[in-house]
Amino acid sequence: MTKTFALPLALAASLGLAACTQADQDAAEAETEETAAEVDAAVDEAAADMEAAADDMASDIDAAADDAMAEMDEMADDMEDSMDEEAPAE
Predict the structure, then answer these.
(1) Residues in CB range of 77: below 8 A, 6 or more apart
(2) Share of the chain above pLDDT 70, in %
(3) Whole-prediction pTM value?
């Protein structure tokens, strides 16, 4: 008679344990998915920051190159003017 009560009780305990294990596994999977979403968002933000920094750097390089070309043109004009002034009249 004891076995009649013990077997259903053991079965119920097993099902309860399995349900708890599944709930823990579901919670762990949900946490993993949330963490993956946070990592994806951080990676996207970092990529956007890198792209913005690269764009800023390219703009700075272009501005510096434009300034250098303007200075070179000015120097060339000054040299040309100076050569015209020093050239003997024919």
Answers:
(1) none
(2) 71
(3) 0.53
Q: What is the pLDDT of residue 9?
A: 67
Separation CA 51–CA 38 (nearest Å): 20
Positive or negative: CA dihedral 22, 26, 32, 35:
negative
CA distance 85 to 79: 10
Dihedral sign (CA 44, 46, 48, 50) = negative
13-44 pLDDT, tens per residue? 676 666 667 777 878 888 899 999 999 999 99
State the Cα–Cα distance between residues 20 and 28, nearest whole angstrom: 12
Task: Tell me 22's DSSP state.
Answer: H
